Structure formats: C-alpha cells, structure tokens
Amino acid sequence: MATSKNNLKEEFLKEVSDGKHRFIDIALDSELPKRIREAVSKLRKFKKVIILGIGGSALGGIAVMRALYRPLKHMEDDSTHFFFLDQIDPDLIYHLSHNLDLKETHFISISKSGDTIEPASLYKLFYQKIVDAGLDPKEHFSFVTGEDGFFAEEAKKIGAIHLILPPYLSGRFSVLSEVGLFPAVLAGINIEEILEGARQAYEEFYTALDLAITQDKLYQEGKIITVVFPYSYRLNRFADWYIQLMAESLGKTKDIGPTPIRAIGPTDQHAQLQLFMEGPRNKQVLFLEVEKHHHDPQIPGENYTLEDLINAEKKGTGQALEDAGIPTQTIKLPYIDAKAVGNLIMTLELQIALLGKMYGIETYKQPGVEAGKKITREILQNS
Amino acid sequence: MATSKNNLKEEFLKEVSDGKHRFIDIALDSELPKRIREAVSKLRKFKKVIILGIGGSALGGIAVMRALYRPLKHMEDDSTHFFFLDQIDPDLIYHLSHNLDLKETHFISISKSGDTIEPASLYKLFYQKIVDAGLDPKEHFSFVTGEDGFFAEEAKKIGAIHLILPPYLSGRFSVLSEVGLFPAVLAGINIEEILEGARQAYEEFYTALDLAITQDKLYQEGKIITVVFPYSYRLNRFADWYIQLMAESLGKTKDIGPTPIRAIGPTDQHAQLQLFMEGPRNKQVLFLEVEKHHHDPQIPGENYTLEDLINAEKKGTGQALEDAGIPTQTIKLPYIDAKAVGNLIMTLELQIALLGKMYGIETYKQPGVEAGKKITREILQNS
Predict the structure, then answer these.
(1) Do A121 and B272 touch (CB under 8 A)?
(2) Cα dihedral sign for B17, B18, B20, B25?
(3) What is the average pLDDT score of chain A?
(4) What are the catalytic residues of B?
(5) From residue B164, how far is each of B20, B113, B268 by CA, in Å?
(6) How far apart (Å, rounded) are the C-alpha atoms in residues A273 and B255?
(7) Start-end of H helices in chain B
(8) ipTM over 0.90
C-alpha cells in the first residue's frame, strides 16, 4: 500500500507538470495577488458589492467570505456589505433592485464562459438601472471572465476593470484564482496568506492523498453517500462549495459517482442524524472541526463554554456514528485564519482531483448540464 | 390500484381519529390562532426577535418566514428583524451578543422537551445579559415549550409568556402549531390563512397520497435518494425543513429510509446537475415551482422576464432529467401566499406520515440521536 500511495503521488505530480491540473499552477503563481491588488487599487470604496455569478463563480467566494469576513458584519453600518447574487427569483431581484443605493454599489460580474444566462440577465437589468440613474457604468461594474464572450465585450465597451480567466480553468476549481480572490481582496482579506496555506497543503500532499484513498475505499464498500459535516458556522458554506466540487467532478458515469450531502453541526444532529445512525448504512462522513475560536463565551452557571459544547458534540456524534458502523474522517483546523482556509481549499481540491484520476474520469468537464440548457433556450425563444 | 389507494386513505383517516397523527388535530384546532394572538397582544413591539431553538423548533419557522415575510426586509431599517439562532458557533454568538441592542430585542425560547442543550445554553447566556443590563426578563423572553422542563420552570420563575406544547407533538411536525405560528404572528403573517390552506390540503388528501405512492414506488425501484429542488428563493428553506421531516421520520432501519438531499434552482444546475444527469441512477426529484410571482422584472433588450427564465429553466431541467431516466414530481404553487404555504406544509407532512404508515415505522420518534448526546454529556462532565 505504501508503494502504491507513493506511486499515485508521483503519477499525479507528473500530470501536474504535464499541465493536466492547472488549478494548482494558478494558485501557485506568485504574480496572482499583485494582479488582483493592482485592479482593486483603481476602484473607489463602495458600501455594497454585489457579485453576479452562479455555481463555481459564487460558491468558493461565499465560503471564503463566511469564514474570514467578520461574522455578522452586516449588522454594523460602517462596513461594506457583500452579496453574492447567485439567484434569479423574480421577487428577490425586484426587492433587491428597488432597495439598492446605486451610487454606493459596485457589481462584479463573474463567468468563465462570459455568457452564463443568469448573471448575464442580471447584468443587463442592473446596467440599465445604473445608466437610468445617470451613473457611469465604468465605475460600477468590473468583470472576471475569459478573453471572449458577452462579459468580455461589455468590459471593453464600457472600459471597466477586466480580470482575465484562462480558458482551461474549471469554475469549481477556481476559488484560488481571480474568481474567489478579487471579492476577497475587496473585503480586506489577506489573500497572500490564503495562497500560502494552499502552497503548504500542496507541499504536504499526504493529507489530501489519505482523504482520497479512504473516501474511495469506503465508496467501494457501499458508502456511496458522503456527508460533509462542518461543526462551525464560519465553515458551513464550505459544504456547498465541496458538494459542487465532488458532484460535478466525479459524477460522470452510471457506475461510479459519490453523492455528497450537507449536514451542519450541531444543527443537523436535530434533523438528519436519526437517518445517518439507524437508516441504510450507505453513508460516510467528512467532518470539519475547529479547535480554537477567536472568542469563546462561558455559559453562566455551567462548567462549559460554547467551544467546549460544540467540540464535545462533534466528538460525541463522531463516536456514536463510528459505533453504529458509519465511518468518519475529520479535517481539523487549529484556528480559522486565512492560511488555514487556503490549506483547507487546496486539500479538498487535491482530494477530488486525485479521486478523478483514480476513477479515470474527465474531472474538469461537465457535459451533463447541456441538455437542460438547450431545452430552456428553446422554451425562451418560443415564449 | 384505485382500491388500494382508497383503502390506504381510509386506514389512515381511521388512525387520525384514533389519535395517531396528532399534528393534524393541532393544525385543525380552531382555537389555535386565538391562543397565539392573545399571547402576542401582551408583547410590546421589538425591533429584533431572536428565536432560540434548533431542528424542528426552527426549520419550519424559517421556511415560513422566508416564504411570507418580505424578501430582504432586513435591508429596510424600520422593520423588525427575525433571527433564528439554531447555531452555537462561539464566534457567531460572541459577535451577535455584542452587537445586539438588548432593549429592543425579544427572545423566544422554543423546545418541546424544554431542555435541549443548545437553546438552553444560549438562553442562560442571554438571560444573564438582560439582567446585567438592568432590564426585566419578563419583557424580553417568551417560551414555547411543554408543561415541564427547564424552559417551563424559567417561564414560571420570571412570569413570562408561556405557550404550552402537548407532549405528543413531534418537533418536525410542529410548524402548524405554536412553534411555527407564534414567530409568524409577530412578523405580521396571516396565520389563519396558513391554517386554511392546511385544512384544504387535508380535505383534498389525494395530492399527498399520490406523492407518497410515487415516492415509494420509485424508492423500491432503486431511487433511494430524493432530491428536493425548489425553483424559488422564497421556498428554498422548505428544502431544509423537508429534509428533517423525511430523514428523521423515515430513517429507522437498515433496510429502508430514503436519503433526502437539497438542490436549489437554478443555482444547482451549475453545481449538482452533472451528477444527477450522468452519475448513478439512484435519484428521484421533487420540484417546487411557483407559477406567478408578485413582481416580475423584464430583462432589458431581451424577450423574456425573470419569471419566464426561472420557469423555463425548471421545465428544461425537468425534461432533461426525465429523458436521462431520473423521474421527477412537481408541486406547483400558483402564487406564494399564506394559504399556498399552509397547503404545501400539510401536503408534505401528510406525504411523510403516509410513507411512515406504509413502511410500518414509528414515524414520530427519533431514538437514533440519543447515543451521541450521552457521549457529549460525558465529555462535558469530565471537562
């Protein structure tokens, strides 16, 4: 086993140098933070930043922001509010667009292809509002997109900031590129430390490799559902990001493809644990745990703090699951800071890339989402 | 089949009159809204209402509030903010408790047992803060809980409002009781109409019965994962509520127990659809669709509105899934209002209750969550 593990590592690193796993190259590119900071330096400060993007253009940024931007910062009036608009619900958009102070709002349009219909539609809507309000679109929009496509044309037309994405970058592997790091810089997050953490995870490598090997072994044993189970409010949006990472990367054939599902600790002890414990034994669990928090309120009249409680609940749940025959793995973060978040991201990206290689799958493509889009276009054309 | 369907209905209704499905009795109790409104009339208006509750004490209320309280109301400063605190993350709680205007905050403690450790711990923390601020706890706390337990004692001690839950009511089936409707009334929601919609769904019955029969048939055919897939921001928290409803109610044995998972339309077309379309064919899909919205922005320069777009995407995705061999069902809401929301809740509760009966399961118990709690208590006692 030790040999095959080392073989796997060497083969994978060979593929990296052959340019098969470019998400790593981008994250390790020392010019990346400079490029982003230079673009940001041209922007005046806005009170609100709305990100128009969906799927891989949003989920990584949301996860990073939840983890590293101060929790509940939106309750403080002097701060910048970030809102990832990855929805197109008519009522939501109506209320949002009628309650915005447009003068104080900047929009970042993110799309690798440059013409994803949801963010493109919202862009058209907000562009019109900016123009109608007599404001300069050049100030209020920036773009993270490829060299071509609708958003690239718009960037050129209005003369706005345009951070260019390479064509080979897959959305769900793009958080450690301009996609995730441009909004992060605007939020004052230290992206150099995120990238430093990512580099450490890549150099270390074995954490990801062990996660991948265990995930696969358990999958082969019938644990076809992977529960991702963060015990931390600040890490809980990583669950959504990881679900896309695993589902879109590994869901390619009838014969293989784990189904990732989300549970949030300890909330889902009160919602899903009954099924995990006593239902069909087709699940494995990946916990995310935080050892030390920035703050830790004591519970009056008790001998425990909230940190004692949440970590005891995680341990209790993990032990009970193991006892019931539901295997678990845990990624432990000593503390939530930018370095740890970068490390977590790269570790999980490597895990999925390794599984893709083990399964002989086209990890970075997503052919299965075209059929629905085609029907949607036909319906819209005939409406 | 027609006969067995009618038999099933009759047997179930017999069980209802035998007192086996008490969640229906409570929702049909004409005194319920009066009791709640009387309690609410004693409360002065607060700017912020924080609900301390977890699992079944929170998920239904969250779903109702998202659907019926104006979207993004939190962006308007003159309104009441509702916050369901179903988390105990130390950093989150620290920031929250340091940013609250306690004078303007009311806390509702919800727990059927009356001593669930997470809301009880948070109550102790906020109670101390209220006392330290020289405020009267009687004004700032109310309780929705059983006749006994820690919360009931506290209610008595401080002389606060106490809405009493009957012991047989299961948390995940409690949204149409004081649990979900007390916060709803504070938000100005017409609970009489919610209950009217619930009554209609119960009288109609066959929608729920057909949903249950199809769910079961597909499960037996190997569609062991149920994707609940709302195409509406305002309905998306129903996914979390339904996941608990199905998981805790039906997850009782190794041999049977569908795994519900959440997808949000159209967001998850860009995150999970690849797996649903081309991965293992072990999934069935339950869509929630809204036909008409309150508002419907036109996209400038295009021949479609946002409603056209979201509904075309739902149809396109549904058609593509069916073509690929992933069966779907759709619950269509003509419009989101209180009656439709009540109808939806009762329909899905009946569906799960019917499935529980078909599987011969103890639908309203959750024995599988005790082992972890025991270990947690031991860890805390030894800390």
Answers:
(1) no
(2) positive
(3) 94
(4) 248, 270, 373
(5) 20, 11, 40
(6) 17
(7) 2-17, 22-28, 32-41, 59-68, 90-99, 117-132, 137-140, 150-158, 178-186, 191-204, 206-220, 237-250, 273-278, 306-323, 338-359, 370-381
(8) yes
Residues A317, A328: Cα–Cα separation, whole Å: 10
Q: CA of A292, closest CA in chain B: separation in Å? A: 10
DSSP string, A87-127: ---HHHHHHHHHH--GGGEEEEEEESSS--HHHHHHHHHHH
- C-beta separation of B81 from B183 below 8 A: no
- Under the banding of pLDDT at 50, 70 and 90, the label for residue A70 is low
Of B28, B30, B64, the residue nearest B345 (C-alpha)? B64
- Residues of A within 8 A of B276 (CB-CB) are 251, 368
Q: Are residues A316 and B375, on separate chains, in Cβ contact within 8 Å?
A: yes
Shortest Cα–Cα distance, A122 to chain B (Å): 8
Span B245-253, average pLDDT: 97
H helical segments located in B29-116: 32-41, 59-68, 90-99
Instruction: Say yes or no for a CB contact (<8 Å) between B281 and A254.
Output: yes
| C-beta of residue A130 within 8 angstroms of C-beta of residue A123 | no
3 state SS of B116: coil
> Strands A48-52 and B105-111, how do they pair?
unpaired
Q: Give me the pLDDT at residue B72, please.
A: 47
Contact B271 A172 (CB under 8 A): yes
CA distance linking residue A328 with residue B140, whole number of Å: 42
- Nearest-CB residue to A244 (from B71, B272, B320): B272
Indicate the residue type of A356: G
The answer to whether A361 touches A249, Cβ cutoff 8 Å, is yes
CA distance B88 to A310: 7
Q: Sort out which chain A residues have CB atoms less than 8 A from B224's CB and list them.
A: 280, 282
How is B227-251 classified by DSSP, letter by letter?
A: EEEEE-GGGTHHHHHHHHHHHHHH-
DSSP state of A230: E
Task: Give percent of chain B with pLDDT exceeding 70.
Answer: 96
The kind and range of the H/E element at B331 are: strand B328-333
- Chain A contacts of B305, Cβ < 8 Å? 90
Going by C-alpha positions, the residue among A184, A170, A195 that lies closest to residue A67 is: A184
- Of residues B211 and B4, more confidently modeled: B211
Give the type of residue at A374.
Answer: K
Predicted confidence (pLDDT) per residue in A356-380, tens digit:
999 999 999 999 888 899 999 999 9
Q: What is the mean pLDDT of residues A342-358?
A: 98
- Smallest CA-to-CA distance from B57 within B118, B110, B117, B109 is with B110
Residue ranges of domains in chain A, CATH in brackets: 21-189 (3.40.50.10490), 194-368 (3.40.50.10490)
Name every residue whose Cβ is closer than 8 Å to that of residue A229 and which is 6 or more positions away in sequence: A239, A263, A264, A265, A268, A285, A286, A287, A288
Q: What is the pLDDT of residues B267-316, one digit of tens each?
A: 999 999 999 999 999 999 999 999 999 999 999 999 999 999 999 999 99
**Active-site residue A278, yes or no?**
no
Q: In angstroms, what separates the C-alpha of B309 from chain A's closest C-alpha? A: 7
Question: In whole angstroms, what separates CA B114 from the centre of its chain?
Answer: 19
Q: What is the C-alpha separation between B260 and B277, in angstroms, rounded? A: 17
Which pLDDT score is estimated for A75? 43
- A18-42 average pLDDT score: 95
Give contacts of B274 with chain A, Cβ < 8 Å: 247-248, 251-252, 366-369
Cα–Cα distance measured from residue A308 to residue A21, given in angstroms and rounded to the nearest whole number: 40
Is A34 catalytic? The answer is no
Tokens 């490597």 belong to which residue?
A350
* Least CB–CB distance from B319: residue in A232, A296, A375: A375
CB-CB contact of B225 with A258 (8 Å): no
